[in-house]
Specification:
single chain, five-stranded mixed beta sheet, Rossmann fold, 14% strand, alpha/beta, 10 helices, rod-shaped, five-stranded parallel beta sheet, 52% helix, 465 residues
C-alpha cells in the first residue's frame, strides 16, 4: 500500500507485464508519496495516457505483444505525451546496441535490473520535481495572462469611460445647440405663419379687388358684343373679343394663384359628402361638350363595374380636378376621341382615367408638368396659367388620392386620378378667413360662365398647368 498522496502529488506510470515487478516498484517508490498507477502491457499504458498526465513513466523493455521500445515510440509520436520522461527498466539486453536503441526511441534513462532502490527513487524524484516546477511555471503563466487580461479589460473600461465622458460632453453641447436651433426654428416658424397668414389675406383681398374690375370688363364687353349699345364693326368685334379673352385669362390666373396660396398655407377647405360615379363624369361632359365641339373631339365614357361607384369626398374639388383633365385632353387631343374610364379599386375606392390621342408628353417632361408655371407647347389657342395640373395634383393628395400621368410622344396621354373610399381623415383644414371663403365662392361664379351667355364651365388651364 502507498501512503495517501497529498494535493501536490503527481502521477507516475509503472508499466510491466509481471505483477511482482509492479509490486516491487511500488514498494521502492512509495516513500516519494506520489500517485503510482499500474499498466501490465503497452496497450494498457497507452490507454492510461489518454485521460491522465504523468510526471514520468517507468517502462519495462521485455513485454509480450507490444514491447517497451514500440510503446515508447508511440508515446513520443503523440503531441500530448511526447515530452513525458521515460525510464527503461530491463534485466537483459545490456549491450550498447540495445541501450542506444532505447535512447533513440526517446528514453531519458536506461536502468538494468536489479537496481538500487535509492538510485531509482532519486532519479524518479528528479523528474517529479521537474514536472512540479513545470506545472508551477504553467500556473504562473496562466495567472500572468489572467492578470494581463484583467489589466487590458480595466484599460478598455477606462477608455470607454473616458469616451463616454467625452460623448456626454459632446451630447450636452449638441443638446444646448439643438435647443438654441429649436428656439430659432420656432421663432422663424411663428414669423412664417404670420407671413403666410398675411399673404393669404393679401391674396384674398387682391383677388376680391381684382375680380371686381375684371368682371366689369367681362360684363361690359359681353354687352358690347350683344349690341346693347349699338352696332359694331368687324374690327370692333374682334378687338372686344380679344379684350374679353385677355380678361378671362387674367381672371383665371387670379383664381389659380389664390387656390395655390391656400393649398400652400394649408387653408384649403374640403367638404366631404357622398359622390357617385359615373354620374359626376356625365355632369362634367355636359359642361365641357361645347369646348369638345369646338375642337371636334368625341367624348366617350366607360364604366368597368355593373353598379355605380360611391365614395365620400369633396365633389367641388373633384370637379375642379376632372374639369382640368378633360379640358386639357380636348385642347391637346388634336380633335381625336377623348376616353374616360371609371374603375373600382380593391380598397373600395375609384380610379378615373382620362385618355387623349394627341401629341403626348416626353418622359423628361412628365414630372415637370406638375410644377408651377410650366407650360409645354403653348399656342394662342391653348393659353393657360401653368397652375392647373400642380393644383390638381395637390388637391388629389389633400383628398388622400393621387394624380399620375402615362404618355407616349405621338400617341397621346393618360391622366389617372385615384381616390380612396373616403377622404375623411385626410388633410382637411377649414378656412378661418371669411374673405378667403368669399373669394373661393366668387371663383365658382365668375369661372362658371362662358362668353356671350354660353354654357357654364369652370376656367380651364393648358395640360402643363
Amino acid at each position: 500500500m502507498t501512503t495517501a498522496p497529498s494535493d501536490e502529488a503527481v502521477d507516475i506510470l509503472l508499466v510491466d507485464d509481471r505483477a511482482e515487478n509492479l509490486l516491487a516498484l511500488e514498494a521502492i517508490l512509495e516513500p516519494l508519496g506520489q500517485r503510482l498507477l499500474r499498466a501490465q502491457s503497452g496497450e494498457d499504458a497507452l490507454r492510461r495516457l489518454l485521460d491522465r498526465e504523468f510526471a514520468v513513466i517507468l517502462l519495462d523493455v521485455q513485454m509480450p505483444g507490444m514491447n517497451g521500445f514500440e510503446t515508447a515510440r508511440i508515446i513520443k509520436s503523440r503531441e500530448r505525451t511526447k515530452f513525458i520522461p521515460i525510464i527503461f527498466l530491463t534485466a537483459i539486453s545490456k549491450e550498447d546496441e540495445y541501450v542506444f536503441h532505447g535512447y533513440s526511441v526517446g528514453a531519458v534513462d536506461y536502468i538494468f535490473k536489479p537496481f538500487q532502490p535509492e538510485i531509482l527513487r532519486s532519479k524518479v524524484q528528479v523528474f517529479v520535481e521537474l514536472y512540479r516546477q513545470q506545472r508551477r511555471i504553467a500556473q504562473q503563466e496562466h495567472r500572468l495572462r489572467e492578470v494581463e487580461r484583467q489589466e487590458l479589460e480595466l484599460k478598455h473600461v477606462h477608455e470607454l469611460l473616458e469616451s463616454e465622458a467625452r460623448q456626454a460632453q459632446t451630447l450636452a453641447q449638441s443638446a444646448k445647440e439643438l435647443k438654441q436651433l429649436n428656439e430659432e426654428l420656432h421663432r422663424r416658424q411663428l414669423e412664417l405663419e404670420r407671413a403666410m397668414t398675411a399673404r393669404s389675406r393679401f391674396y384674398a383681398s387682391m383677388s376680391h379687388e381684382l375680380r371686381t374690375p375684371i368682371n366689369a370688363v367681362l360684363g361690359y364687353s359681353t354687352l358690347l358684343l350683344e349690341r346693347i349699345y349699338g352696332p359694331l364693326s368687324e374690327k370692333q368685334v374682334e378687338g372686344i373679343e380679344r379684350t374679353q379673352k385677355a380678361a378671362r385669362h387674367l381672371l383665371e390666373l387670379v383664381n389659380d394663384v389664390l387656390d395655390l396660396s391656400k393649398i400652400e398655407a394649408g387653408k384649403i377647405e374640403l367638404r366631404s359628402q357622398p359622390v357617385e360615379f359615373p354620374a359626376l363624369i356625365e355632369d362634367l361632359f355636359v359642361t365641357v361638350r361645347p369646348l369638345a365641339d369646338v375642337h371636334g373631339s368625341l367624348l366617350t365614357l366607360e364604366q368597368q363595374s355593373d353598379h355605380p361607384i360611391g365614395i365620400v369626398s369633396d365633389p367641388r374639388r373633384l370637379r375642379q380636378i376632372l374639369l382640368n383633365l378633360l379640358s386639357n385632353a380636348i385642347k391637346f387631343g388634336r380633335g381625336r376621341p377623348i376616353n374616360v374610364v371609371v374603375t373600382p379599386t380593391a380598397d373600395a375606392g375609384v380610379a378615373i382615367s382620362v385618355t387623349d390621342h394627341g401629341e403626348g408628353i416626353s418622359k423628361e417632361d412628365q414630372e415637370r408638368i406638375f410644377h408651377e408655371f410650366v407650360q409645354l407647347g403653348k399656342t394662342q389657342l391653348q393659353d393657360g396659367t401653368g397652375l392647373g395640373l400642380p393644383i390638381s395634383r395637390r388637391l388629389a393628395e389633400l383628398l388622400r388620392g393621387s394624380l399620375t400621368v402615362e404618355s407616349v410622344v405621338g400617341e397621346g396621354s393618360t391622366f389617372k386620378l385615384q381616390l380612396p373610399a373616403s377622404s375623411e381623415g385626410g388633410r382637411t383644414l377649414r378656412v378661418p378667413d371669411q374673405e378667403v371663403r368669399e373669394a373661393s365662392d366668387e371663383r365658382e361664379l365668375s369661372g362658371a360662365n362662358g362668353s356671350n351667355g354660353g354654357p357654364r364651365h369652370s376656367p380651364i388651364s393648358t395640360r402643363a398647368g
